[in-house]
Amino acid sequence: MLGVKSRNLGTVPAAKGGATSTSGGGGGxxxxxLRPCGMLVQKRNSDVNQSQNVVPTIKVKVxxxxxxHEITIKSQATFGELKKMLAGRTGLNPLDQKLVYKDKxxxxxxxxxxAGVKDGSRMMLFIDVMRQEKRLVEDLKSAxxxxxxxxxxxxxxxxxxxxxxxxxxxxEIYGGKKVNEKVLLNLIELLMSQLIKLDGIVGxxxxxxxxxxxxxxxxxxxxxxxxxxxxxxxxGISKGKISFEQKLVSSMEKQRDSMKWPLVxxxxxxxx
Length: 272
Hints:
By secondary structure, the chain is of the alpha+beta class. It contains seven helices and nine strands; from the N terminus they run βββββαββαβαβαααα. The strands form three sheets. The protein has a four-stranded mixed sheet with strand order 7-6-9-8, covered by helices on one side. Strands 3-4-5 form a three-stranded antiparallel sheet, with no helix packed on it. It has a two-stranded antiparallel sheet with strand order 1-2. A hairpin with a 2-residue loop joins strand 6 and strand 7. Helix 4 (129-174) packs antiparallel against helix 5 (181-199), helix 4 (129-174) packs parallel to helix 6 and helix 5 (181-199) packs antiparallel against helix 6. The protein is elongated, with a radius of gyration of 48 Å. It starts with a strand and ends in a 14-residue tail after the last helix. It holds the Pfam family ubiquitin. One of its GO terms (cellular component) is cytoplasm.
């Protein structure tokens, strides 16, 4: 088969699966491909760059205690990604791992290729005891906070219900409607019981802050109920006084009328 002549590039031998050629001007290598129609054309730069940017995969050997673990990983991965893969093999939390390569502990954010890790490289894995203890303490605190949050949420829900009852009583009493005093006293007792429950919750951070807010909230409702008791006791008193005075005046008038002497007109003064 005759060669294909290309302008400025000289004669390029045709190949069935594709070929490479040197350019006439710069002496660099140029990639070619054979199209289905039989034409031999130059490869696009995007295809060439894509093939050149493929990240190679490497195998590293990690010794942990008396065992060796062979991990297949991308050469441009981080030591943190390697720790995550080792967690599945060793059962060790990535946060508790200490990876040593070339007698130096490697940071989780560092890249393997930058540190010089290659295919077949070896490294050591140790347990970071201090970091593990610190993490366990933090996990324990977090568990205690989660445990305290549940009863606090339940108490808050109860306080919300009692707050609605306080609001209903305020509308009734300040609207002039007299309420049975036992209702007010019972509501105060229920709020006091919520204060006792809040006193039993122990926690730090957000739990402590939420507990303090709920305590102040309950105390405010109790103060409002004390004022409502005073206001409720005044309802109907003024009307009662007026009716009592009216009855008193009426009875005195009747008594005075009964004691009046009959008027007698006579000229017989001696008899009178």
